[in-house]
Fold this protein.
Amino acid sequence: MFDFQGYGPRLLEGAWLTAELAVLSLIAALVIGLMVASAKSSRSMTLKSVATVYTTLIRGVPDLVMMMLLFYGGQIGMNMATDGLNAWLGTDMFINVNAFAAGVVTLGVIYGAYMSETFRGAFLAVDAGQMEAARAYGMSPWLAFRRVRFPLMMRHALPGINNNWLVLLKSTALVSIIGLSDMVYVADQATKATHQPFLFMLPVGLGYLAITAVSELVVTGLKRRFDVGFSQAT
Amino acid sequence: MEQWLTQVAPFLSDNLIFTPNTLAQYWDGLVNTVQLVFISLVVGLFLAVPLAVGRASRRVWLNVPIWLFNYVFRGTPLLIQLYIAYYGFAFIDGVQDSAFAFFINDPVYPALLAFTLNTAAYTTEIFVGAIRATPQGELEAARAYGMSAATAYRRVVLPSAFRRALPAYGNEVIFMLHASAIASAVTITDLTGAAYYVYARFYSPFPAFIFVALVYMLLSFVLQGGFKVLETRMLRHLKPA
Amino acid sequence: MADSEIPLVVRDLHKSFKDVSVLNGLSLEAHEGDVITLIGASGSGKSTFLRCMNLLEVPDAGDIIVHGEPVAFKQHNKTREPASWKQVERIRSRLAMVFQGFNLWAHMSLIGNVIEAPIHVLGVPRRQARERGMALLERVGLADRADYFPAQLSGGQQQRGAIARALAVDPEVLLFDEPTSALDPELVGDVLAVMRELADEGRTMVVVTHEMDFARDVSSQVIYLHEGRIEEAGAPADVLKKPNSPRLQQFLAPRF
Ligand SMILES: Nc1ncnc2c1ncn2[C@@H]1O[C@H](COP(=O)(O)OP(=O)(O)OP(=O)(O)O)[C@@H](O)[C@H]1O
Ligand SMILES: [Mg+2]
């Protein structure tokens, strides 16, 4: 009964794609988020305003629209760029925008904006005295960041990151609309072919709940790690 | 400047795209989006109030099912919920001839169902959080003056919880506006659907999607501003003089 | 005197939290016009005693009788519970409490706070409640602050407002739990002045306080609690001037 009318293997592949997409996008979002948060707390007005415009834009536009813009626009933009290069260099190249990569980039760019807000709040929450102490003991800025500010900050950032991650995970479903075969896409195809929506949609829904449950365990573990020295009786 | 203009000109003079025809398409999309979002939010809000009260209650038979409902609707993508509502009834035998046919013949109804339940779940959690944050002393004062549990709820707990919930609810409204873009996946021509149509017709993604992005952004800002005004009014009691 | 003529009688109250026994047989009679002050070290059970009187805590044993009407209890899963919450609500509205932390309802204006219980508990018409509420705010010196929200008032103003709110239900007994402890020293005087006036006009009051001047000047009876027992009780002139118990002597000794 678990062969899902022959769709079992494809569903599993879809689930794997969802997981990969989610994790890679999370990493992209964390990196972008950290950079943008640093830009926002930097002294350069230009960096600051670019970062602010970026987060404002992203937060005003639906994920799906952003995704369609970057995905459909990405190929055409790439074509324009290669056409230009070809005309200039006299070459004949064509770069195919990979749908999976486009998905990762899009989700990374969108959730990078949300992550940057989380990180910025966490930066502010770290007591300035702690960083001063680190510098006073002769730590280089990078070392001080890595050994002092980052672990302290993560304690404050973790709940926000967890929140963004859960939203991101569900947003990966949108890639099925632009044709990536994640588990929602497979379920949609299978439903259309077999007319058995519940057979496919319910297990996929459970799949998301399962990923959420696993990530909750991870977050609890991380929380314990970053809470060292702060844990209270509560 | 000259050079810049020549580069931008193709986009501007692409008035092939923003014809009265396509603008009308966008307008219809806007109307559909606003209708979908507005109706789901209003109905979802009305559902969320009793759900939140039940979820905050200590009665397990009341509180656990609501918790489960919220967990499922908040833990799975809205897209799945939309597909279940959209396909779930369509393939039932005989539904075409039943009084229920209207529901499957127009994708707006399943979309409304999914959106409403989804926002009800999120809103319920927002309210529950606000209810639990009721200052204990205020509740105690209400009981100390002889208010019954129900009166204390109606007069003290809920009014102050609604005010506290306002900022988070404002976020939920904007979230719903953005989430509604997936209505285009079940053939509803909402704003995103209109943009996709324009893109597909002219194979030109930038004008089609950037324009619709601006419309969403404008709507978001208007909503945000509206909630800011509401918050300063409703939360003025928390500001020291 | 028959119980029915006495506003508040409490007999042999016991209460423990988990296994810790906090009240060990406390009794008290508040006659018409009495001002009873409860004093004692922190943790001696003063607040718990007061909160039992209007059933914010349910005593494990003992009677509470308001103008001859005893609160009925029943046994439920080995814990004692009021037999009728309706009765409790009715009794609570006759014993108004003023809290250490004011506990004004933050989303209502001051006048809104004052008229809330009269309208929604006692069913007084809004117009009438408002007129009376304004008169009460006048009394506590806050008529010009009627439309302010609690967060916009100083602590002393909030506490005077809370007293007006308590008076608005026309209580037979006023219960005060350290009404001035959360206040800056310069704001204490205004609140105590209002309480003195209430005592002078013959209100029945039970007051938990650390203000010994108030206890000495205003009260008809002082009760000193120690570990949930009445260690000493009597007229302020006796209890505060000539304490018998060494503990009370130490409690009253000037601190340096
Ligand atoms: N809800 C409760 N749960 C458990 N223990 C409690 C509770 N309320 C009070 N207690 C305990 O009962 C004892 C008496 O507390 P109570 O608040 O009545 O003292 P108090 O005399 O009012 O002290 P203070 O002057 O500090 O206000 C304390 O040891 C306290 O820890
Ligand atoms: Mg106390």
Q: What stands out?
A: The pocket of adenosine-5'-triphosphate (ligand 1) is lined by residues C 17, 22, 40, 42-48 (CB under 6 Å). The CA atoms of residues 47 and 136 of chain B lie 26 Å apart.
